[in-house]
């Protein structure tokens, strides 16, 4: 898996976000990690960093929780599909929900994979390598 420029974590659990950030930095999976507490904040960060003139903080990858206040992961994905970016980040759902309906629904909304919690770097690498292989990257 190539090293990513930026990963955006969208999760309302600050402990999960901190642990995932530490793991990402320890495994050197990304140069930068930014975070949002809900889908609405995540969309605002994407519009800020990935607009017409994308910055180095425009994420290559989004780790998205499903169950959050304000705007949940499903609502985020529905809005995200309507945004046009120069570089569109890939999305992996990272959630404690194991509801089959939830997992099927996010697949239909364009995510490239899903992981359970706690965060496992090997699973992230597996999903990204499969996606890169599928797209000949």
Automatic annotation (TrEMBL):
Pfam families, A to Z: Response_reg (PF00072)
Entry annotated with the keyword Nucleus: no
Transmembrane segments: none
GO BP terms, alphabetized: phosphorelay signal transduction system
Domain Response regulatory: 6-132
InterPro entries xref list: CheY-like_superfamily, Sig_transdc_resp-reg_receiver, ST_Response_Regulator
Highest taxon of the lineage: Bacteria
Protein name: Response regulator receiver domain-containing protein
The species this protein was found in: Catalinimonas alkaloidigena
